[in-house]
Amino acid sequence: MDVAVIGAGSWGTALSQVLANNGNNVRLWARKESVVQGVNEEHRNPRYLTDAPLNPLITATTSMACALSGAEAVVVVTPSSTMRETARSFEGLVGPDVPVIICSKGVEEGSGLLPVEVFEAELGNAARLAVLSGPNHAEEVVRGIPSATVIASEGAETAAFFQRLFAREEFRTYVSEDVCGVELCAAFKNVIAIAVGVSYGMGYGDNTAAMLMTRGVAEMSRLVQAIGGQAITCMGLAGMGDMIATCTSEHSRNRSFGKYVAEGRTLAQYEADTHMVVEGALACRTIQTLSQAYRVELPITDMVRAVVWEGFDAHEAARMLTGRPFKTEFYGL
């Protein structure tokens, strides 16, 4: 098939490799001409995953119209902060029934909308929209290391279509109908990974990390259930699976950013050093819109937001979390 991949960062590059290895012609849209040149001439992305040789079936372009022309499927892998801009750029270029899968993770600032809701608002036809999420570090997926992911859509045919499109022996694909649950898990786990990174940066150990992860899943479950998703989704690939990978791996930008914060460094410094967007930094702020609207208590998320955006002392945040009143383990569910 002819597949357009919109976004040439680490994840867009890795997913392009999966699709091309399945025999598809992939047109990869990139913002920078240097990336286009590297992919087309040297079959490498000179900015992300630079050591990975790319399948020759991947070609790159800076033209959105060129990338989308004749595409039988569209894969969106741009930062969550540009979701609406990306959706609007599809106007007149993507047919009303062309399947679109969103692989970005976050919540729109101000509206509290999930990426799939933004695309539905701009493009319509929710049944042709899907989302993809799971414990998938791009650095491993591009190398063919065994991984699994979940694809969710309210259209069963759309979910099955993308399941077949991406499926490989080393990249197992599962389907779900819980679109909002999968998307919220995808955004939420990045926030908890920052908290885990901060805790390690402060000198705490694995017990503390495990506490933050499991209590983070409890927070995630309360909010997912409140907005109409399924709490069980939080125990699957998009929830606990992605939480484990993101909170424990040195590949994780959110975890490593948490260590930056513990060392007194800033978000701007991290993004300048790594050329990567820290989705959890934005998510800890945008998720507040949902927690307030649905009146769901999210103590870890609130502390991460205070530390990252409000200059709150990390040690004081830790004291406030451990000093909270004792409760039953699964309150609010």
From TrEMBL:
Pfam families on file: NAD_Gly3P_dh_C, NAD_Gly3P_dh_N
Transmembrane segments: none
Binding residues for NAD(+): G7, A8, G9, S10, W11, G12, A138, R253
A GO MF label: glycerol-3-phosphate dehydrogenase [NAD(P)+] activity
Residue sites binding sn-glycerol 3-phosphate per the record: K105, G134, K189, D242, S252, R253, N254
Binding site for NADPH: S10, W11, R31, K32, Y48, K105, A138, R253, V277, E279
GO cellular component: cytosol
List of catalytic residues: K189
Keyword list, A-Z: Cytoplasm, Lipid biosynthesis, Lipid metabolism, NAD, NADP, Nucleotide-binding, Oxidoreductase, Phospholipid biosynthesis, Phospholipid metabolism
EC id: 1.1.1.94
A biological process term (GO) from this entry: glycerol-3-phosphate biosynthetic process
Claim: NAD is one of the keywords in the record: yes
Record domain Glycerol-3-phosphate dehydrogenase NAD-dependent C-terminal: where: 178-317
Main location: cytoplasm
Free-text function comment from the UniProt entry: Catalyzes the reduction of the glycolytic intermediate dihydroxyacetone phosphate (DHAP) to sn-glycerol 3-phosphate (G3P), the key precursor for phospholipid synthesis.
NCBIfam families in alphabetical order: PRK00094.1-2, PRK00094.1-4
Similarity section: Belongs to the NAD-dependent glycerol-3-phosphate dehydrogenase family.
Protein name: Glycerol-3-phosphate dehydrogenase [NAD(P)+]
Native source species: Candidatus Aveggerthella stercoripullorum
